[in-house]
Amino acid sequence: MKRVKFSAIARFAQAIAFVFLGALLFASCAAVKPVVETQEKEVKTPPKKSEVSFVAVGDNLIHKPIINAAKISGENEYDFKPIYSEIRSVIQSADLAFINQETLVAGEKFGYSGYPQFNGPFAIGEAIIDTGFKVINHATNHAYDKGKDAILKTIENYKKYNDILLLGIHASLVDRIKDRIVTINGISIGFLSYAYGLNGFILPENAPYLVSLIDKDVMKKEIESLRPKCDFLIVSTHWGEEYKYKPNKEQEKLALFFADLNVDLVIGHHPHTLESVKWVEGKDKNKTLVYYSLGNFLSAQNKTPRMLGGMANMVIKKDGAKTYIENPKLTPLITHYNQNFSDFKVYLLKDYNENLSKKHRLYNREKDFNLAEINDLFAAIVSSEFRE
User: For residue 161, which of 119, 120, 132 has the smallest C-alpha distance?
Assistant: First the structure.
């Protein structure tokens, strides 16, 4: 969503917080890390060859109309599961699925709200877990919209799900420095996650660990620590400019920074529109695959390009000591909702049809809302190498 500009004082305070966080991480890695257990999840699947099918989607952006549409009987009862019914089988067919949960799910105590400061019921989290997502990122510019206690409550809400890997928000410094690793079919996959900022807010000086933010010194330490411990390393980044189709210079510089540190895959989000997919070569001639922005997975935004999202999909293969990506693609998705902001659903674009499009709220409101132009937009953004 639209960024709130930092004041000079806020920028200075944020810089101080970064320095403090770097010092804390350095000191804690030396003093605490030997007694910290790695947060590693073993996903049990039938034995098969050393490969993992992986999918990732972009911003699950829960505006107030989506919350209203999901309300069922009872004062505080919501069901978001039907929203994902058309995509569920695709997500569940993958060995591992990632989602960028853009907004907090801290519950009623913090008030249900949309733009510009978001929060919703934990039924949202329950729905995306039911859909098949096992890796959930919360390092976004909206992570601190309701303050520290809302972050802690969001984390607490996920704790009953033992097989979920939560990224980007942390209840303590000890939690922040844990390694996030998933092992499937003998392949260990490490995750790190960072956001560019916090919607104009700054983290408390005594709790800079709450949200993982983009800071090269901190990221370098964390990447170099995790890289030797996993076969495959994924970095999730909340970055870029809203509503752009191409990465900016800062995104490109950071992508090269990650490639130089031998990151295997970068999953980008925040612009709310699709951006390009590219291989970036690191200093050691290694290749890093970068999805600069997967766009919106779900939203109630009101422009055609923001209805078009993407699902990264690939096979991660291990052959001896070598682990690599095979057949990476970007599958187009579309968000549907009716004229009265009802019947929200996410579809594969190939499964969407003219009859459904005529029921969409944007039909006849946006001249470019038709399947031909939406498909043309996807083709213009994503090179043929990565289109299915």
Answer: 132
CA distances (Å), 85 to each of 91, 131, 138, 210, 344, in order?
Answer: 10, 8, 23, 33, 10
- At which residue do the structure tokens 């956001």 appear? 195
CA distance 176 to 157: 18
For β-strands 345-348 and 296-298, DSSP reports them as unpaired
Contacts of 19 (CB under 8 A, 6+ apart): none
Among candidate residues 131, 138, 209, 140, the one with its CA nearest the CA of residue 177: 209
Burial 181-217 (b: 16+ CB within 10 A, else e): bbebbebbbbbbbbbbbbbbbbbeeebbbbbbbbbee
Contact criterion met (CB below 8 Å) for 293 and 275 = yes
State pTM to two decimals.
0.89
User: Which three-class secondary structure state does DSSP give residue 52?
Assistant: strand
Contact 138, 124 (CB under 8 A): no
Distance CA 91, CA 57 (A): 10
Q: Kind of pairing, strands 287-291 and 265-269? A: parallel
> How far is 237 from 3, CA to CA, in rounded Å?
16
What gap in Å lies between CA 270 and CA 267, rounded to an integer?
11
Tell me the pLDDT of the chain (388 aa) as tens digits: 444 444 444 454 555 555 445 555 544 444 434 333 455 656 555 444 699 999 999 999 999 999 999 999 777 799 999 999 999 999 999 999 999 999 999 999 999 999 999 999 999 999 999 999 999 999 999 999 999 999 999 999 999 999 999 999 999 999 999 999 999 999 999 999 999 999 999 999 999 999 999 999 999 999 999 999 999 999 999 999 999 999 999 999 999 999 999 999 999 999 999 999 999 999 999 999 999 999 999 999 999 999 999 999 999 999 998 999 999 999 999 999 999 999 999 999 999 999 999 999 999 999 999 999 999 999 999 999 999 8
Whether the CB-CB separation of 239 and 196 falls below 8 Å is answered with yes
**Per DSSP, which regions of 255-321 are E strands?**
265-269, 277-281, 287-291, 296-298, 308-319
- CA dist 169 and 167 (Å) reads 6
